[in-house]
Amino acid sequence: MAPFNAPYPAPAPRRPWPVVGVLAALWALATPAQALDFGPFSLTGFAKVDVTRGSNQCPNCQVFPGEDKQRVWADEILPGAVYGTETTTTTLIQPFLAANFNLGGGFKLSGLLSQRWRDWKEDIPGYLYEANVAVSHEYYGRLTVGAMTTRGWALADYPYGADLGLAEEWSSAGAAYGLLMYDSIRYTAPVLDVFGGDLVLEVTYSAGDRDFKINKPSFWEFWANYRIGDLVLDFVGQDSKNGNPQAWGHGPFTGLTPFPADDPLLGESGQSIMMLMGRYTISSQWEILGGARRNRWTGAYAVFTNSPAQWNNMFNVNWGGTLNGVANPGYPATSTDYLAGVRYRWNKWIFSAGMVYLGKADTDNPSERGQSNSATMGTLGAVYDLGYGFNVYGLWGAVRYSQLGLSPMSLPTNSAFTDVDARVTKNGNWITLGVIYVF
Questions:
Q1: What is the CA radius of gyration of the chain?
Q2: β-strands 117-118, 107-114: how paired?
Q3: Angle at 292 (CA atoms; ends 96, 168), nearest 5 degrees
Q4: pLDDT recorded at residue 12
Q5: pLDDT in tens, 294-330
Q6: DSSP 8-class letter at 315
């Protein structure tokens, strides 16, 4: 089950033994105090490796491997292509280097730098996860400037999706964006006492790629976190204009294409999400989780460009059709996705069961671009705490598409996250074993 990283091709599977060796060395050196502190600086992070055995895999089914799902020629499957059981490995390493300084008068200055490597390569080439500075005060809130992750991806990834073994399936689907560029700005208000609980409000803005002068990008995100007793609620709203049209909630917000020279040839595009997630601790052993996300895309027409990609980044196109005189028009679409799960803690064990449902889309596009399909993904998992920051885990997962054909509109590729291609088979399952070290 190799996670998908559009628009970049997934790395080739690698043997886990180098990371296993690193984890073994860290185990030998580990102490109960996991974080590394030196003066005002602290280093935290995680490293993990897992091995997945999955059914109904078809890595060579598509005629044009790695081609964008939105391009009609990517739909074609090799006649007689064979699919079966495959084994893949995945490694993830992400350190966080933080700095904190007391400025006096209640003000604090902090900085955060972080990058993620997947299978020994940059997770999303050319983009850092965190590279920002912040000034905070108990009474005035916190102002952060720089590159950062969005709440729409980060919170959906952890703790919600990750705690159910559905991190990619939940956080990296849909109409959200996940990474913001270096001139982004975020304001987090002080904690408010509302109806006996704690409320945190936050707004984030990013101008994306400023080299686009005609179709100027803009990104807004609003986050509200409410905690009362054993209940935690997170609301995230994103509204963006002229970012890369996509259904990949992990992707960076930049511009309509990677090439600002395309600007005069393009039309405006936008997308947004509204998402509510919650966690409730029933007892010291039981916890339930849930979420709902509404996706909206305006669509983006397909046009030939002079850039190296030759085509723009289009979305939900009626290939060969026209609309208001526009050839190959993109149509608006909306869809709704859901998350549900439960966790049970017993001594050093944590057991979980989770489900993600990616719904059918509502659109007027007369051609089929995945709007008629839906996907249900379920997991059963177990995690054991070895101590000193180490955990081992096992996971059984399965996916079922409602029909053969293009995958649901919320998915970035036809086999995203599960390697089970919706054009080849409606069902697939996998078993994952892994180890993670958190410091």
A1: 22
A2: unpaired
A3: 40
A4: 34
A5: 999 999 999 999 888 899 999 999 999 999 999 999 9
A6: B
